[in-house]
Structure formats: structure tokens, C-alpha cells
Amino acid sequence: MRIDADRFDAVLAKLTVLSTQAGGDVQNVSTKAVDVHGGVHRHRRPPARARVDRATYLTILSRATTIGETLSVQQQVDGVQQQIEQLQGQQRLLANQSDLASLTVTVSEKGAAPKPEPKPLTGAGKALHRASSGFTGALENVVAGSGVAAVILLALAVLAVLGRFAIRLARRRLV
Q1: What is the pLDDT of residues 112-127, one digit of tens each?
Q2: What is the pLDDT of residue 40?
Q3: 84 Cβ contact partners less than 8 Å away, ≥ 6 residues apart
Q4: Mutual orientation of helices 67-99 and 123-174 as an angle, nearest 10°?
Q5: Angstrom distance (rounded) from CA 17 to CA 5
Q6: Which helix (H) or strand (E) holds 100?
Q7: pTM to 2 decimals?
Q8: Exposure of 62 by Cβ count < 10 A (0-12 exposed, 13-18 middle, 19+ buried)?
Q9: Of 6, 9, 31, nearest to 100 (Cα)?
Q10: Position 8 confidence tier, pLDDT thresholds 50, 70, 90
Q11: What are the helix (H) ranges across the chain?
């Protein structure tokens, strides 16, 4: 359950009372706290700095005179925009983590043997988990990057068609 941090103790007490009323007994209570204050503080300023960078690049983009300059600066604008979106997402995640507490409740039949806690990952398990996380992250980056590449290729294709049309038009005028 995700619970407002302010109501966490009250909800935990109510669950204990409900368990007792239902004829059960609480066998284990554990809580876990994660300090996200440093993370929230670290990520408060960078989006503003990135927005200043984006504004600077947009100013440069408005002054670009060649296709090469335009594409180069547009690529920088896209990169900064992606950074802004990532930082905003991290801020939302950290804010969510600081506002809500997690509570895991395991319910079992009265008299049933308690379910064993899962063992923490060790050696090979950790390596496999990191490898799969890394693969997933790399795949996400490829998909995100392919969108930018597709836009650039589309722009180049349009420019090539327009250039070809201009050349044909110029040849006709010479004839």
C-alpha cells in the first residue's frame, strides 16, 4: 500500500487492531525508510539550468543560416530537452517517495505456517539483475534516440527533395 507519510502510524495501528479482531496475531512488523531529501535537493536546480541552456540554444538556432548549423543546434536543443524531461521525472519520483510511505501487508490463514521471506540477491543473482537492468536501460536509450534520428532523417529528406526541385527549376529557367 502507498500511504501518506502523515497517516502511516495511524494506518499501521488500525491494521494491527483489524488483525486482532479477525482472530489473527501480528507475527512481524517491519518498516523501511528511505532518505530522499538529498535527492530532492540535488534535482531542484538542474532543470532550471537546463532550461536556460535550451533558451540559449534556441536563440542560436534562430540565427543559424545554414542547414548544417540548424541541424547541429537542433540536436543540442533536443538533447537538453531530453535532460529536462528526465530531471523533471526524477523530481516527481523523489517527491512521490517523500510524500508516500510503502506498507506491505501479508495475510495468511490462522494457524498457517508463515511464508518465508525472500532471500536477498547475492553474487550471480545481483549480476544478472544488473545485467538485465543495464540491457533494459540501453534499449530505452536506443528507442529514445531513434525518434531524434527519424526526425533528422525526415528533415534531410525534405531538404533533398526541395533542393532537387530548386535545381530543376533553375535548369528550366536557363533553357
Answers
A1: 666 666 677 778 877 8
A2: 47
A3: 47, 50, 51, 54
A4: 150
A5: 20
A6: strand 100-102
A7: 0.36
A8: exposed
A9: 6
A10: confident
A11: 8-21, 37-42, 46-63, 67-99, 123-174
